[in-house]
Design brief:
- This protein is mainly α.
- The chain has eight helices and no strands.
- The radius of gyration is 18 Å and the shape is globular.
Amino acid sequence: MTDDPDAALVIECRAGDRRAFDRLLARYERPIFNAAYRILHHREDATDVTQTTFLRAYEHFDRFDPGQRFFSWIYRIAVNEALDVSNGRRRTEAVPEEFASDGAGPERTAQADQLDAGLQDALMALPVDYRTLVVLKHVQDCSYDDIAVILDCPVKTVKSRLFTARQALRQVLLDRGYS
């Protein structure tokens, strides 16, 4: 058996426990949607990717190795699905972001919205591979090891590509007048 509670839930799912799947869904649905949305910047596509990710995970629980982290396994599925959608449909139109009220005044909220929109636009200007790395590291707060597992490449490659992605993002922001 494993110390990972998620792996234990997968084992319960394999045994037919529907509630175990519901717990995994509750734990990971929002983070997977957020990652997909940041990669695709299209709400409906991110919703589709989230649903497809859980469907694929459910269909392939027998392939999950309880010795690895469930988080990395399901994120790999989600990233692959998002990349497939991104490569299949070149969506670039902006979708208005819904922001929760944080009590800040309208001027401050407008500035934050403008900065977020500018950052999201700059992120969307990056090639999808770079965008994926930035989202996994800086939005989803994944470790280098987790990213390496998710993208199925060595940690050194992740670090090198992430460095290049950050430089590209920096250049896009500078070109657009952000300092």
